[in-house]
Design brief:
By secondary structure, the protein is α/β, with parallel strands linked by helices. The protein folds into two domains: 5-35 and 67-184 and 219-399, no CATH class; 423-577, Glucose Oxidase, domain 1 (3-Layer(bba) Sandwich). It has 22 helices and 16 strands. The chain has helices spanning 5-34, 44-50, 56-63, 89-99, 115-118, 127-142, 159-169, 189-200, 206-216, 228-238, 254-269, 280-283, 286-299, 305-315, 322-329, 346-352, 354-364, 457-465, 482-485, 492-502, 562-567, 588-593, and strands at residues 69-74, 103-109, 149-153, 175-178, 373-374, 377-378, 385-389, 395-399, 423-428, 431-436, 446-454, 473-477, 507-511, 524-529, 546-550, 555-558. β11, α18 (457-465) and β12 form a beta-alpha-beta unit. α4 (89-99) crosses α11, α6 (127-142) runs parallel beside α7 (159-169) and α7 (159-169) packs parallel to α14 (305-315).
Amino acid sequence: MSADSRIEAITARIVERSKPLRERYLDRLRSAVSKGVHRSVLGCGNLAHGFAVCSPAEKAALAGDRIANLGIITSYNDMLSAHQPFETYPALIRQAAHEAGGVAQVAGGVPAMCDGVTQGQPGMELSLFSRDLIAMAAGVGLSHNMFDAVVYLGVCDKIVPGLTIAALTFGHLPAIFVPAGPMTSGLPNDEKARVRQLFAEGKVGREELLEAESKSYHGPGTCTFYGTANSNQMLMEIMGFHMPGASFINPGTPLRDALTKEAARRALAITAQGNEFTPAGEMIDERSIVNGVVGLHATGGSTNHTLHLVAMARAAGIVLTWKDISDLSDIVPLLARVYPNGLADVNHFHAAGGMGFLIKELLRAGYLHDDVRTVYGQGLHAYAIDPKLGEDGNVRREPAPIVSHDPKILANVEHPFQRTGGLKMLTGNIGSAVIKTSAVKPERHVIEAPAKVFHDQAGLNAAFKAGQLEGDFVAVVRFQGPKANGMPELHKLTTVLGILQDRGQRVALLTDGRMSGASGKVPAAIHVTPEAVDGGPIARIREGDMIRLDAVHGTVEVLEDATTFAARTPATADLTENEFGMGRELFAPFRAIAGPADHGASVLFA
């Protein structure tokens, strides 16, 4: 089935806009492909270092380029639940590669930090920049030029976008992403949020809060809410980087291991030595990127991807804009209700039909491009499946269910939860911003209230504890952009603003910082650009200015005299406290050259 004409039109304008950059990218990619595998032309000393630990038979085969060598880029560490399962993956991949007649080597590791650990801490100011650092680290591992294809082991917030940038930078090589899956369901996410709110109000103590948090985050795998980590997995599958059905299978299960070994075999099958050569940079095109955006809207995914998708696309020579993302949101319906957009977690989403049902429905209505290449072959329809474990221990795939197993979690296109997607671009005299509407009640899509201005989230939280946040207001939290302090997530604001909203106040947030993929019920205009440290209009807002945030019409305005507002001297802030400690001094060059939020807040594509 061909895509909806409106989807086709947006895709066509992305193609046209991207032509010069995309053509240069493909020329470089094809030049690299034409040179073939480089191991045979490496100097003897170079090659000896590259396969020193291999068996004599593997050395002989690699020396003559007779077998394919699979590189592994891993984000394994054993502190973080989402990445701990990767400890055993290299052994599984090596075994599968050997059985398929190939070799696999860990090419390198990349850092993997957890935004859950660093929320509200100095380390959070390294978080966004870690994405580009991860891309660089993966590039170092692949620079040895020993590999015919690559498998990328990553899950969480900045790791998968960073690895995607690396995969597309090394786009002459086939690439498959191998996830670890979500942890099993623990304390329901809404109950965890309730206890957090009680703690913020002083009604329960730290012991009760820690108990609730520990019951929620309790074992190996990703957090079960639908934040950035699980949005990443959805993206990799709907863009064709995963094996079909791989996203939401729990760690430590036979099916999870079978999918991992299958990915290794498939990666070897799609190298230049075979008949299905699938270089990542050719495979991912404008249609793949649009499919990713469509999936983000249909599932109410993370706001972080308004940054990441722009940067990921740019790595492939594709120019994606916030307007493209917003226009697609006006077309694509919301089909999933997963916390914070509902009460279910990702395990419930998978049980209701998961990615297979979602892709089937979106294809049926023409919201996705089916005519794309994937690591599995040609056509996204191959992903409209339900993965099972066969009697032989291998993956078996059945057609996705025709009807959702739980319509309260996963809807069909005829009866969506919302006629439009979950993300919208806002523009006005403050600049440009992004808002997530999928978890915000319709009666709160328009907020007009006076500004309360803060230069960090600690200031707002202190005002809350002092009882100073009364009445309706728009919280302006500025000097939180990429150049100011690395654009940290301001998730500590979620609980406070949620409490005030529950008390009957009409509140909203306006910030040049980020909010977590777990952000929900409070309307928040985030990623404001130009940022305050660049003298953007947000720096001219004063306490008491009337602000109108309108997610219906896509506007965000300061309702003051235009001439007077424009003539104001922008506020400044002392940011010296953000320059040192917890490694922040190491990232000073990143802060100096970071691009604006609507360009992906990247140091690579500023």
